[in-house]
Each structure stands twice: as structure tokens, then as C-alpha cells.
Write a structure and sequence with these properties.
The chain has about 140 residues and is of the alpha+beta class. The protein is built from 3 helices and 5 strands, in the order αβββαββα. It has a 5-stranded antiparallel β-sheet. A hairpin with a 3-residue loop joins strand 1 and strand 2. The chain is globular and about 40 Å long. It starts with 11 loop residues before the first helix and ends with a helix. Bound molecules: guanosine-5'-monophosphate. Guanosine-5'-monophosphate (5GP) binds next to strand 2.
């Protein structure tokens, strides 16, 4: 899907936001829902999904984007405190040619380790018990 087109209200993250599909939740408020990526590129890969119905960041309202970014920072700092990675990548992809696969805007928070290659984008499925344990640890730094 290119950068033109319409928002599909039945995309997978819209369904997760509406509670129609499950997720391993890290955090939620009236602005964002954050949950573990089930095909993580590194252990502790979190997705921060603004509630606003927009396909990508370029289509978000200024207010929703401005409200989302401090949440991305706060959850990024919780990932840092919980997992003590060597680095943290924050990524956001706009349009299929840029690598976007789910067309509801979201921010990736991906812990990085010295010398470790980044895993495949949307690669292997994670162990759900591990995801749940990671989410619990990260969430404990958001209290
Ligand atoms: P994008 O490619 O659009 O930037 O990122 C979409 C992300 O969503 C990918 O990293 C992929 O692993 C993740 N993903 C795809 N389907 C699901 C799902 O059903 N649940 C969760 N938690 N993550 C998903």
C-alpha cells in the first residue's frame, strides 16, 4: 500500500484497539495502547499504537502526534530500565515501500545489543510466556 489511499478500520491494530483481537499489553491510556510485537526483531520489542485512526504518522493530527510522542519516550525509558539494553531503536514506517505492513500508525521500540544483528522485520513468532514476562517487567517501570 502506497502513501495514498483510505484508512481501513478492519486493519489488525484497529481490531486490537477495539478489543476484538488479543494483545500482550504493556500500557494504555486515552491516547495510546502499547503491546509486545508478536514477531519481535529483538527481545523486548514494543509497539506503541496511537488510538487515532490514521494510516501513518504523516496523516496524524498534530495534537494526536504531539500527545503520542511523550508516551513513546516514557515507554522507551521503561524498556531501558527493565531490560538495560545497549541501545534502543525507535522506528516508524510510512507506506509499504518503507517497510510498513500494518496500516494503522505505530511506533516500534526495539532494544539493541552490542554486536547483535537486528532480527528480521515481522520474522519469527515469539513465545507468548516470554512476551508476557517481558510486558510485566516493562510495565512495572511505568507505575
Ligand atoms: P510495520 O511493518 O507496519 O511497521 O510493523 C508492524 C509490526 O506489527 C511488525 O513488527 C509485526 O511483527 C507486528 N505484528 C503483525 N501482526 C501482529 C499481531 O497480530 N500482533 C502483534 N502484537 N504484532 C503484530
Amino acid at each position: 500500500m502506497s502513501l495514498t489511499g483510505k484508512y481501513d478500520p478492519d486493519n489488525i491494530f484497529a481490531k486490537i484497539l477495539r478489543g476484538e483481537l488479543p494483545c500482550v499489553k504493556v500500557y494504555e491510556d486515552d491516547i495510546v495502547l502499547a503491546f509486545m510485537d508478536i514477531f519481535p526483531q529483538a527481545p523486548g520489542h514494543v509497539l506503541v499504537v496511537p488510538r487515532e485512526a490514521a494510516r501513518n504518522a504523516l496523516e496524524m493530527s498534530d495534537d494526536a502526534l504531539a500527545a503520542a510522542m511523550p508516551r513513546v519516550k516514557r515507554i522507551g525509558n521503561a524498556v531501558k530500565a527493565a531490560l538495560a539494553p545497549d541501545g534502543i531503536m525507535i522506528a516508524q514506517l510510512n507506506g509499504a515501500p518503507a517497510g510498513q505492513t500494518v496500516f494503522h500508525v505505530h511506533f516500534h521500540i526495539i532494544p539493541r545489543s552490542d554486536g547483535a544483528q537486528l532480527g528480521l522485520h515481522a520474522g519469527g513468532k515469539a513465545d507468548m510466556d516470554e512476551l508476557t514476562a517481558q510486558a510485566k517487567t516493562i510495565a512495572s517501570f511505568l507505575d
